[in-house]
Amino acid sequence: MPEQIPQDSIGLVTPQTLHFDQPLELECSTVLPGYTLIYETYGSLNEDASNAVLICHALSGNHHAAGYHSMEDKKPGWWDTAIGPGKTIDTNRFFVVVPNNLGGCNGSTGPTSTNPESGRPYGPDFPFVTVQDWVVSQARLADALGIHQWAAVVGGSLGGMQTLQWSITYPERLRHALIIAAAPKLTAQNIAFNEVARQAIRTDPEFHEGRYIEHNVLPERGLRLARMLGHITYLSDESMGAKFGRELREGHLNYDYGVEFQVESYLRYQADRFVGQFDANTYLLMTKALDYFDPAAAHGDNLSAALSRVSAQFCVLSFTSDWRFSPNRSREMVRALLDNDLKVSYAEITANQGHDAFLMKIPHYLNLFGSYMKRITVGGETS
Amino acid sequence: MPEQIPQDSIGLVTPQTLHFDQPLELECSTVLPGYTLIYETYGSLNEDASNAVLICHALSGNHHAAGYHSMEDKKPGWWDTAIGPGKTIDTNRFFVVVPNNLGGCNGSTGPTSTNPESGRPYGPDFPFVTVQDWVVSQARLADALGIHQWAAVVGGSLGGMQTLQWSITYPERLRHALIIAAAPKLTAQNIAFNEVARQAIRTDPEFHEGRYIEHNVLPERGLRLARMLGHITYLSDESMGAKFGRELREGHLNYDYGVEFQVESYLRYQADRFVGQFDANTYLLMTKALDYFDPAAAHGDNLSAALSRVSAQFCVLSFTSDWRFSPNRSREMVRALLDNDLKVSYAEITANQGHDAFLMKIPHYLNLFGSYMKRITVGGETS
User: Fold this and answer.
1) What is the residue-level pLDDT of chain B in tens, covering all 383 positions?
2) Are A303 and A333 in contact (CB under 8 A)?
């Protein structure tokens, strides 16, 4: 392995794509005639296909969760802290599959793809996708890969919602569900933040009703605002305080609208980075999928009833300083799972990093998470 | 009193204006050659001018705190719940003075005023104003009204910061300071929210570097976003949940970007209302004044040292669900006041309304607040 890639990394990885010709009827009733999923896999599928782990990504995530695409990459995949040989999700034991969600902008069919009906980019015509739609599309990917049952489905944030939905939609197709920093549905405040982000994008004059690609522009201002706002909700007041405090970039007040406090610099930097990488229509779709997720709704708002057919074993993890999806939201899920006499491990992890803690190298968290993964048995291993 | 105006209201009120010719050197070093303050007063100043109460307003507040401007007014002033005959701040006892802050957009000199040097609106040329500048300008108003010492200075949120600054700048000019739902300085998270609001306004193409009035337009999109975001931070997750939950406006999902959840409707309504009423440059200035406020900075970040010359008696109130300026922030002030052996009453009020609780008719809160006001002695009264 080349020396600039760390020893415990999965190393160089290559994304794969798979096209599905079978039409997919989405929850919004639109039928997608066909679609492509891009995904990465790490490790090897064992003989009885009992060691497959599905990773579901969050709002701005994608299929590149671990390793490097090239020797020039400065950063590995988004969950490299947790996925790799000997790591929390041990690629020496597990065959890890990470698709980019339908509606995404990193290679799976989404708003930036060409609409076969018009020959132009889908843009705003890409249909609304839901967590349930993603789960169905991921099940087809599992079929194609010869995976009848996942050893585990794992996800943080919006990824945790997909994990919960997997346990409801296909109870027999997963043995373990790991739900991290998630919630069984958004609160009014969560929806409100999403709505401000959407308004920022949609009122940007360069949005052009979603047809900005055809106008050769990007709704940069709106996407920047959405990302800045997102970042505030991903961090805790405490971690922002520890990271930036009230530190002044130039040591004194300038009485102008340039960057005065370090935290302003951080937000502007994050915003700038995001604009070149992420599609605004995808951002809109993802926030809508978050808003819509509510498996209890069809059961009179009774989450326990929604989980009555579930059979997986669960590991639910939350972080004390996460105010986007607070520990209380995880406890709601744990309570509903226990109502159904399901096996649940739950931990509330003391961490001041806020919602983003789920992506970070926090030893106590990764140890707990890793211990749970170790207890998952797979075929061909002697225990 | 006409029947549509409630019995306990101060009734019809008329704003007054006062022009100050004496130049004012601001903290940013700019000298304002002269300025006008608009203000309202309720009740009568007693013989020895010992019953005057100054009310300092918050970010989007103004001089119209109580009563009605005309019989057609649908709503009274912003703190009519607390100010009036027999109310918490009893206008039968106190002479209440409420100025609109310098830099405001409701009649005091600010960005929408004409710059005497250019004959055009100040717009972005209006200088940065700080909490300290406001206090100095308010002291001149007190001089003009013949008020040497306020019986009390009272303020919520940014108004509470002005109250704290009054006690530092003019220790001998106030007997009581009531600081409600405030903080001794902003956190990095508070600054981050302000920065997103500013970016929303400043990147609006109709902002025209702040000269939108001369272009006959308004940066409506930016101001709407700033207001929506503000509203999220004024309410608590709990109160938003209680008010809107996940209720759908039309009872079913539409899979579009119109209003689906009630909370979206609320935000859009608040944004629309604000745009016609508030000036974007003033909004920018007010958020900067918030960011800059930090009386401890000049004393090595030691708030106790910053308060060493203070002599007022204090009433500090906070609300359990206020996450913008949480009870912890009030406790910091209380601790620093106690370090200086000052008299302090402190209450943490159980209320689920978030930061906005300070404006609301919450009996427990208004009772506590009113009890404190009743204990303030004024000349000519027999106790």
Assistant:
1) 445 789 899 999 999 999 999 999 999 999 999 999 999 999 999 999 999 999 999 999 999 999 999 999 999 999 999 999 999 999 999 999 999 999 999 999 999 999 999 999 999 999 999 999 999 999 999 999 999 999 999 999 999 999 999 999 999 999 999 999 999 999 999 999 999 999 999 999 999 999 999 999 999 999 999 999 999 999 999 999 999 999 999 999 999 999 999 999 999 999 999 998 999 999 999 999 999 999 999 999 999 999 999 999 999 999 999 999 999 999 999 999 999 999 999 999 999 999 999 999 999 999 999 999 999 999 988 75
2) yes
DSSP at B248: B
Q: Which residue has the tokens 């109250």?
A: B163
Task: Provide the greatest CA pair distance for chain B.
Answer: 68
Chain B: give the shortest CA distance to residue A175, in Å.
Answer: 32
Average pLDDT in the A129-137 region?
98
Active-site entry in A322, A326, A330, A356 = A322
**CA distances for B250 relative to A185, A202, A294, B136, B246, angstroms:** 19, 22, 17, 52, 12
Is A157 an active-site residue?
A: yes
Nearest to A191 among B196, B253, B263 (CB): B263
Using CB atoms, pick whichever of A185, A196, A221 lies closest to residue B232.
Answer: A196
Residue B275: CA count within 13 A, CB half-sphere? 17
For residue B240, give the nearest of A192, A240, A288 by CB distance: A192
Q: Does residue A259 contact residue A249 with C-beta atoms inside 8 Å?
A: yes
The residue among B246, B265, B288 with the most chain A CBs within 10 A of its CB, best to mutate, is B246
The structure tokens listed for B52 are 């005057």
Q: Return the structure tokens found at B378.
A: 């004024």
Phi, psi values for residue A240, rounded to 5°:
-65, -40
What does the alpha-carbon distance between residue A65 and residue A15 come to, in Å, rounded to a whole number?
11
What is the C-alpha to C-alpha distance for residues A23 and A31, in angstroms, rounded to an integer? 6
- Could you tell me the sign of the dihedral formed by the alpha carbons of A302, A306, A307, A308, in that order? positive
The string of DSSP codes covering B312-373 is -EEEEEEETT-SSS-HHHHHHHHHHHHHTT--EEEEEE--SSGGGGGGS--HHHHHHHHHHH
Q: 10 Å Cβ neighbour count for A250? A: 9
Whether residue A15 contacts residue A36, with contact meaning beta carbons closer than 8 Å, is answered with no
Coarse DSSP helix, strand, coil percentages of chain A, rounded to the nearest 5 percent = 35, 15, 45
- The catalytic residue among A108, A157, A236, A326 is A157
Residues of A in contact with B253 (CB under 8 A): 292
Size of interface A-B (CB pairs under 8 A): 137
Residue A54 pairs in a beta bridge with A97, A153
Contacts of B267 in chain A (CB under 8 A): 192, 195-196
